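[Discussion] Sanity-checking designs against the backbone

I'm trying to build intuition for which residues belong where. Below is a structure token string of 358 positions. I'd appreciate it if someone posts a full sequence so I can compare it with mine line by line.
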């Protein structure tokens, strides 16, 4: 048996009617009598993400999210008062005064999710400073009317948008790793307790099985150790056979991208997704902490992007350079007409399972 290139493989579930892609602390400035430079620092996406975490992590008083301006290479941080604006400038980011606090928007997102129907998603958009509720093509008639009323009742803190197609797990055949009842895409190779594992989508384990092979009906090479779906959508799978497991992602052009670590995504950055059906596609991060309601239940804490995906890409890798960012969870549309795709954050999965990229 030819050893699989672990991080370059993607498991993809097969099935009918399933709807879930099978889709710090602010550092004090050095004391100085000189006024801080008001010009934002030129930052790459990874540095902007770290700065965003330090300025908005835990939602400190006066801030309301952040996003990366990739063209200007600067981090923009939403602020509610001048004191917060001064802290943001001193840290090297650009403050932007907005109306709604993060706490207000979080409350709106929770309220709109309490009676959510399948085919809808909710996420705070830091550029709009509003909660965006997305409804797919299956939400119509009385259900759509009720959704419009609920959004309109949020006093300008929420907006409704539609997306073509329907939120689904993108479950279909393709060359990947197989279970007894389907196949799914591998995300990233990791190490736990000195042993080799990989991460994939939780619905792969929930809906297709817990034993995985290199080929359909072939010998088992890995076994699911733990997973979550719905609620979250990630799984950790332990290699049970002596196969290669490099820390890299298949670029489907004869090459691969080495993965050296994981980090949080930042709104506005450019990312790539690798999957067994549509191979490599790119786009940008649109929103964080999104909730998507699939027929099986709601998944929370997802990364929303405008990267396309199709059945068979489920469980695949989202990355930026050498950084692992997400595991393909679900989405709508396709790679001909475009669409949106949601990803489970890799850093959350690593923390949950006590694993590291490796």
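Best answer:
Here's mine. Compare freely.
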């Amino acid at each position: 048996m030819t050893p699989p290139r672990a991080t370059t493989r993607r498991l993809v579930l097969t099935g009918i009617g399933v709807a879930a892609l099978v889709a710090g602390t602010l550092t004090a400035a050095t004391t100085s009598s000189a006024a801080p430079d008001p010009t934002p620092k030129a930052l790459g996406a990874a540095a902007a993400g770290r700065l965003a975490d330090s300025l908005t992590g835990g939602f400190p008083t006066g801030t309301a999210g952040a996003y990366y301006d990739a063209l200007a290479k600067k981090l923009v941080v939403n602020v509610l008062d001048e004191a917060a604006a001064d802290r943001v400038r001193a840290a090297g980011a650009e403050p932007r005064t907005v109306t709604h606090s993060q706490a207000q928007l979080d409350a709106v997102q929770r309220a709109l999710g309490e009676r959510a129907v399948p085919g809808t998603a909710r996420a705070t958009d830091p550029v709009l400073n509003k909660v965006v509720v997305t409804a797919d093509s299956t939400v119509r008639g009385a259900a759509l009317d009720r959704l419009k009323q609920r959004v309109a009742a949020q006093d300008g803190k929420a907006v409704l948008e539609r997306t073509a197609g329907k939120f689904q797990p993108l479950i279909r055949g393709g060359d990947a790793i197989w279970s007894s009842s389907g196949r799914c895409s591998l995300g990233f190779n990791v190490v736990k307790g000195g042993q080799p594992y990989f991460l994939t989508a939780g619905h792969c384990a929930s809906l297709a099985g817990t034993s995985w092979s290199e080929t359909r009906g072939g010998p088992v090479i890995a076994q699911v150790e733990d997973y979550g779906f719905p609620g979250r959508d990630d799984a950790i799978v332990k290699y049970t056979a002596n196969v290669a497991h490099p820390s890299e992602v298949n670029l489907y052009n004869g090459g691969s991208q080495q993965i050296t670590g994981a980090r949080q995504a930042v709104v506005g950055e450019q990312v790539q997704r690798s999957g067994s059906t549509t191979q490599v596609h790119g786009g940008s991060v649109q929103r964080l902490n999104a909730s998507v309601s699939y027929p099986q239940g709601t998944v929370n804490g997802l990364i929303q992007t405008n990267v396309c995906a199709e059945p068979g890409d489920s469980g695949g890798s989202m990355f930026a350079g050498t950084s692992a960012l997400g595991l393909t969870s679900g989405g709508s549309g396709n790679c001909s007409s475009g669409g949106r795709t949601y990803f489970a954050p890799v850093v959350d999965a690593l923390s949950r399972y006590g694993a590291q990229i490796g």
